[in-house]
UniProtKB/TrEMBL annotation:
Family assignment from sequence similarity: Belongs to the germin family.
Database matches in Pfam families: Cupin_1
Record's keyword terms, sorted: Apoplast, Disulfide bond, Manganese, Metal-binding, Secreted, Signal
SUPFAM superfamilies: RmlC-like cupins
UniProt name for this protein: Germin-like protein
Domain (Cupin type-1) ranges: 61-211
Signal peptide as annotated in the record: 1-22
Major subcellular location class: secreted
Source organism of the structure: Rehmannia glutinosa
SMART domains, A to Z: Cupin_1
Length: 217
């Protein structure tokens, strides 16, 4: 009986630790504006001297401007993260604009450090995420202007414009540096390359197809 209670306590403590460390750590000061020139190695970025902090450290102008979607994806992501707004350092937030031309898309990817929430400002968007294995269940929606969708932390997801016009999306993530792992580049665009015989077996494709994919990414 006592063992069961102890086990429950340990599991509860472990769950608590997971929750506490699954997001950017909470700040212990009003702000820690990133000193982008510091070479100090810390979790996040070193703080600037607070006496030198200006309103511009918390400011970015231009998210009303469309990104350039003239590229093979027909997509442009404009992230406003800690590199553009140093005042975001330690605050666990990023905002981004996503432009998608007709048929534009973002390939399947994950953000290892953040949950994402997005809203469509213009056009329409198919968005979907996949649960972890072994079930790999897909949850997807076609969003219209004003719709909001949430992508839980770490889960594989994708976005694509299923309309003929341009789509504009405003997204936020709860990390100053959410990180991105695209399935395509994260498997086929790796330096040094992952062994192609092994990938051929893993994907149940011939080695030539794998090498073509490796050349593309
Ligand atoms: C958009 O990107 C394309 C391809 O890189 C380039 O040729 C074009 O000049 C860019 N357009 C603008 C308005 O910057």
């Amino acid at each position: 009986m006592a063992t069961n209670i102890l086990l429950t306590l340990i599991i509860t403590a472990l769950n608590f630790l997971c929750i506490a460390f699954a997001f950017d750590p909470s700040p212990l000061q009003d702000f820690c504006v990133a000193d982008l020139t510091s070479t100090a190695r810390v979790n996040g970025l070193a703080c600037k001297d607070p006496s030198t902090v200006k309103a511009d450290d918390f400011f970015f102008r231009g998210l009303h401007l469309p990104g350039n979607t003239t590229n093979p994806l027909g997509a442009a992501l404009t992230p406003v993260n800690v590199n553009r707004v140093p005042g975001l350092n330690t605050l666990g937030l990023t905002i981004a604009r996503l432009d998608l031309a007709a048929n534009g898309f973002i390939p399947p990817h994950t953000h290892p450090r953040a949950t994402e929430i997005l809203t469509v400002l213009q056009g329409s968007l198919e968005v979907g995420f996949v649960t972890t294995g072994p079930t790999y269940t897909q949850f997807s929606k076609v969003l219209e202007k004003g719709d909001v969708f949430v992508i839980p932390i770490g889960l594989l997801h994708y976005q694509r414009n299923v309309d003929n016009g341009n789509t504009v999306v405003l997204a936020a993530v709860n990390s100053q540096n959410a990180g991105i792992i695209a399935v395509t580049n994260g498997v086929f665009g790796v330096e040094p390359q992952i062994n192609s015989d092994y990938l051929a077996r893993a994907f149940q494709l011939d080695k030539k197809t794998i090498q073509e994919l490796q050349a593309k990414f």
